């Protein structure tokens, strides 16, 4: 048996451009992959943070199975180190032999915005005017979402501007070409009012902005939290939006933006729209209401994109 391929971060990024990752997520859902049957991930507390163990068998529709072992260390950014690190094991579904080991951080950075863009791409392609994007955050997901939007929309819809809203501009890793604005200032509020797309990719535990700033036609993506008691979005926004989640069960376990909005009486469990229904066209969100996509990250997403990376790396 041959030794597993070892795919480092640079190889993962080079093998699968962001638009290809979006296409892989879309194709898997269109082929019938059901996120609701994915294996649940486990969070294991550690003194410095937590393990996240994320296994997936793809619901039986893929030729591989896999598991990501990730760590979340909240104190790491102050040390100049990544908050999230990890490795991904990709195994043959029949023999369970290890086929490849991928850099888990690079895989997460690639697949998270791919899921976001797959979920909102139909809405974005329904219009033609250049898009104004507001990104809250300065970490890998803030950068990754801008790159993935640009890749998926290339030749189909222009991005007119990107505003990067951060708590401390002096410490922000600026997104190329973006105007960096301090969050909570009048300039940041103006950027949110004008935005066609808002991406929230922060570690915030409380809402980041006033819901009244968001236009009725806007798309809002929230990826920063995966804990039931933390949220980036105000409940008032969820109350007037179509709220899309990867899977209802996973969202009710882990998505604080959803869990807390329900507790506030602003949202009902039955209002949540599964991502698969939007991607396949089974549900067409009302274009006159904001479209909110809340993701927490699921194991099937890593497996789908890892397969795509492997196919191209070979």
Explain how this protein is built.
Helix 1 (9-15) packs parallel to helix 3 and helix 3 packs across helix 4 (140-153). This protein is α/β, with parallel strands linked by helices and 314 residues long. The protein is 34% helix and 24% strand. It has two domains: 5-108 and 300-313, ornithine cyclodeaminase, domain 1 (2-Layer Sandwich), CATH 3.30.1780.10; 112-298, NAD(P)-binding Rossmann-like Domain (Rossmann fold). The strands form two sheets. An eight-stranded parallel beta sheet has the order 9-8-7-10-11-14-12-13, sandwiched between helices. The protein has a six-stranded mixed beta sheet with strand order 1-6-5-4-3-2. It has helices at 9-15, 18-30, 104-125, 140-153, 186-194, 235-240, 248-254, 256-263, 275-279, 299-313; strands spanning 5-7, 42-46, 49-56, 64-72, 84-92, 98-103, 131-136, 159-166, 179-182, 197-200, 219-222, 242-245, 273-274, 291-294. The mean pLDDT is 94. The radius of gyration is 18 Å and the shape is globular. The protein has ten helices and 14 strands. It comes from Promicromonospora aerolata. This is Ornithine cyclodeaminase family protein. It holds the Pfam family OCD_Mu_crystall.
Q: What structural category characterises the helix and strand content?
A: alpha/beta
CATH architectural grouping of the largest domain: 3-Layer(aba) Sandwich
Q: What is the share of helical residues? A: 25-40%
- Beta-strand residue fraction: 15-25%
Main sheet makeup:
8 strands, parallel
Rg over C-alpha atoms, rounded to the nearest angstrom: 18 Å
Number of helices: 10
What is the name of the CATH topology of the largest domain? Rossmann fold
């Amino acid at each position: 048996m041959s030794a597993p391929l070892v795919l480092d971060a640079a190889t993962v990024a080079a093998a699968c451009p962001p638009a290809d990752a979006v296409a892989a997520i879309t194709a898997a859902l269109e082929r019938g992959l059901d996120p609701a049957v994915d294996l649940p991930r486990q969070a294991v507390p550690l003194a410095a943070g937590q393990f996240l163990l994320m296994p997936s068998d793809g619901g039986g529709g893929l030729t591989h199975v896999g598991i990501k072992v990730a760590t979340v260390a909240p104190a790491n950014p102050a040390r100049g180190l990544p908050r999230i690190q990890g490795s991904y094991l990709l195994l043959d579904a029949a023999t369970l032999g290890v086929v490849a080991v991928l850099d888990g951080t690079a895989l997460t950075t690639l697949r998270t915005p791919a899921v976001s863009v797959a979920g909102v791409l139909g809405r974005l392609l329904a219009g033609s005017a250049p898009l104004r994007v507001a990104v809250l955050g300065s970490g890998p997901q803030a950068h990754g979402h801008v790159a993935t939007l640009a890749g998926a929309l290339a030749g189909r819809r222009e991005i007119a501007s990107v505003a990067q809203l951060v708590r401390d501009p002096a410490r922000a890793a600026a997104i190329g070409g973006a105007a960096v604005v301090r969050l909570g200032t009048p300039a940041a509020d103006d950027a949110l009012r004008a935005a066609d797309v808002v991406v929230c990719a922060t570690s915030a535990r409380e809402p980041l902005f006033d819901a009244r700033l968001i236009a009725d036609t806007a798309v809002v993506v929230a990826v920063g939290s995966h804990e039931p008691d933390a949220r980036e979005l105000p409940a008032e926004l969820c109350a007037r939006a179509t709220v899309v989640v990867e899977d209802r069960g996973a969202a009710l376990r882990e998505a604080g933006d959803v869990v807390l909005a329900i507790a506030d009486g602003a949202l009902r469990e039955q209002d949540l729209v599964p991502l698969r229904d939007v991607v396949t066209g089974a549900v067409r969100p009302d274009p006159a209401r904001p479209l909110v996509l809340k993701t927490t990250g699921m194991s099937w997403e890593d497996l789908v994109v890892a397969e795509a990376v492997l196919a191209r790396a070979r």
